[in-house]
Design a protein that fits this description.
The protein is of the alpha+beta class. It has helices at 84-100, 108-123, 129-143, 157-167, and strands at residues 2-14, 18-25, 29-35, 54-62, 65-75. The chain has two domains: 2-75, Nucleic acid-binding proteins (OB fold (Dihydrolipoamide Acetyltransferase, E2P)); 78-167, no CATH class.
Length: 176
C-alpha cells in the first residue's frame, strides 16, 4: 500500500464498471490510477474521481497497475463550477499540465503552480482570470527552462506555449 496526493486531470471509462483516473502528483508526475467498480458504485467518493479534485489516494499495486483502495478529498475546487469562464480556465491549466508533465517524473514546482492557480481561479474576480492564465503559462515555461525570467509575461506567451506543447512528444494515453 502506498499513499499519494494528486490532482485529477481527467477520468475515462475502463471496461464495464471501472474508471481510469489520470492524475498529477508532486512525487510521480502524471500517473494513471484504476478505480475498480467506480461506475457502478453508489458511494459519494465517486465524484472525487472527476477533473480538478485534489485527493489523497491509498493505492494497491497489481502487476503494473496502481489500484485505488481509498480516497480522501483535500480540495474539490467546487468554486470553479460557478461559471463557465472559471471552468474553461481550469481546464486549460489541466490540459497544459497533462501535455507537459511526464509519467513517473517528479514535478513538485509544477504541482504547486497548478494547485495555487486552481485556488486562485476559485477566488479571483472574473476580469482577472485571463491575466492569471497568462501568468500560469509564463511560470510553466519558466519551470520547463524555456523562459529565463518569470516576472515579465511575454506578449506572445500563448504562441510560445502552443509552440512548446506541439513540438514535444506528448503521450496523452494512460500508462497501463
Amino acid at each position: 500500500m502506498e499513499a499519494i496526493e494528486a490532482i485529477n486531470l481527467r477520468s475515462f471509462d475502463y471496461r464495464d464498471s471501472s474508471l481510469i483516473v489520470v492524475a498529477f502528483s508532486r512525487e510521480y508526475g502524471r500517473v494513471s490510477l484504476l478505480a475498480r467498480g467506480a461506475k457502478k458504485s453508489a458511494k459519494s467518493s465517486t465524484g472525487l474521481l472527476q477533473s480538478f479534485c485534489h485527493n489523497r489516494y491509498i493505492l494497491g499495486h497489481k502487476r503494473d497497475l496502481s489500484i485505488i483502495t481509498s480516497i480522501d478529498s483535500l480540495n474539490t475546487f467546487a468554486e470553479l463550477s460557478v461559471d463557465l469562464d472559471r471552468i474553461q480556465a481550469g481546464y486549460e491549466c489541466l490540459h497544459l499540465i497533462q501535455a507537459v508533465v511526464q509519467d513517473d517524473h517528479a514535478a513538485p514546482k509544477l504541482f504547486d503552480l497548478c494547485q495555487n492557480t486552481l485556488k486562485a481561479l476559485c477566488t479571483l474576480p472574473k476580469d482577472n482570470l485571463s491575466g492569471l492564465l497568462r501568468q500560469f503559462k509564463t511560470q510553466l515555461l519558466h519551470e520547463e527552462g524555456l523562459l529565463q525570467h518569470a516576472e515579465t509575461i511575454p506578449d506572445n506567451i500563448d504562441e510560445l506555449v502552443e509552440q512548446y506543447i506541439h513540438t514535444r512528444p506528448i503521450n496523452l494515453s494512460p500508462s497501463l
